Queue: 2 jobs
Job 1
Amino acid sequence: MSEKMSKRIRRLEARVTALEGRSGHAWNSSMESAVREIAEQEARRMPRRQVYQAELAASQWKHLTYAILVGCIIVLIIANTAVHAKAGDTYPVGPPVVVTAKETAVEPTEEPEEAENELIEAALLARSHVIEDCTITFYCNEKYPHICGVGNGIAADGTPALAWATCAVDPDVIPLGSTVLVDLGDGEGLRTLVANDTGVKGNHLDICVGSHYEAEQLGRQAAAVYWCEE
Ligand SMILES: [Zn+2]
């Protein structure tokens, strides 16, 4: 090795040493501080990330809980509707329910009416005069002149002669306008008539019917007649 070469090597070594000595500490310290800073940043970031993840998980749980609740409510509504629909379908079909409703609807309308009629009849009978063994005959309201009348269908007091409602009496025995009750024994019970017409004498009741044939068929009868001026 030449002298020149040795000098050059020593110079290079000196430069390297100088470089190492100059930058070593500074470089190391700056590296250390950089590493520390990164570690601190990471440490700071970690809890934040954990918090974020925890928040994310919580919000996901919240959403899941809401979804389950809404699902439960929908299922309940559907179940409830289905039960009601089923009840609504079966209710009107049930024959016992319909029959019971019909019976309860019909009975109260008929029974009080019958009871009321019986009470009215009883009250009328209590205040009535009675003609035992009264002669009963029948005439018609057909509109042509014949034995039953002139054919205008009008009673003595000017009112229309109505079948099974108007009767003719002797006004000296039963006052005109009186209510007349008679049971002809034909199963129809006590008939209620009004003495609107005249043309007979004494204990005689002439009952208006709808046709001359019917009047002939009913003929001449005898029955107890009750009357009162009401
Ligand atoms: Zn006639």
Note: Residues 94-126 form one domain.
Job 2
Amino acid sequence: MSWYFDERIFAQEQRLLFDDGPGYIGHELMVPAVNDYRSLDWQDHASLLVRSADGVFELSNICRHRQAVMLEGCGNAERIVCPLHRWTYDNRGTLLGAPSLSQPRPETARKLARSAVSRSAIGRVGSREYDGST
Ligand code: FES
């Protein structure tokens, strides 16, 4: 009977059942047009729902420079410009320019994390499936 009230078991069950499973992110109508974005306030704006020409994605909203949150709310933009030091990314997460960057960085440090989401219910597809970034 103690199994049902054991906090460690409960935490392990939550991790095993929910961490890698699908999770609701939003509806695709939150980003109806190409280049639309919406920050996910229930994630403290750490992620964006973005529609680019090749689909709808969850994109990190945390700048690779000094981890600033870049956008809040919704809008339409081909590029994401960090408000602190003006690092600029396209809406697929690729770093386009960094005024204060004096040395080249490895490829993985130049991309925002991006995950595919399903088109019908806009939920995570299994575990996070990044497209090459970290
Ligand atoms: S924190 Fe984003 S450019 Fe510096």
Note: Strands lie at 36-39, 47-52, 55-60, 74-76, 79-81, 88-90, 95-97, 114-116.
